[in-house]
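Give me structure tokens for this 193-residue protein.
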Amino acid sequence: MHGLVLIIVGFCISWNAPAANNPIFAEIVPEKSRTSVYALDRSFESILSSFAPPAVGILAQHVYGYKPIQKGASESEEIATDRENALSLAKALYTAIGIPMALCCFIYSFLYFTYPKDRERAQMEAFIESEMRELLSDTMPEGGDHSQAQPFELEEPYIKDRTIIEVDYEDEVDLDPNKNDEKPILHASRHSL
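Here you go.
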């Protein structure tokens, strides 16, 4: 039974990164930051997993009562101590695996609430970025290298399409806050768009 559980857990535990983390990162992380986020995820997981063996040893020895076999103990005492030590190691392993797995499930459960909004935001940002690229590619000179375009060449089409808005103030307003307690009211009218 113990071997079957280990095989099932060992088979399923490797699914987290390829079946959950990587697809989520691919959808919500901007393309220019993906490699950094993947690397951060892998390193964060590796660093945390490196604390598991010492944690099992500390738990077994200080919490669950692991005791080394005494020198000169009889064979029956060695067997009894081995059984107690096996039980303390099993409890330490269960704690070192069970608590992080429960915490992982708890944290992943929040994705049901945050992931749809994050995905929509990321899709909207990607759409806006692609539209901006398309607009900029329409303004680039044809047949030339985009890197050779000067900043004033990129801004020139936008200068021609600018709209000037004139605002006339009907009354002069004194903006001195110390003069009186009333707040100034500005009246504006638009003449040309």
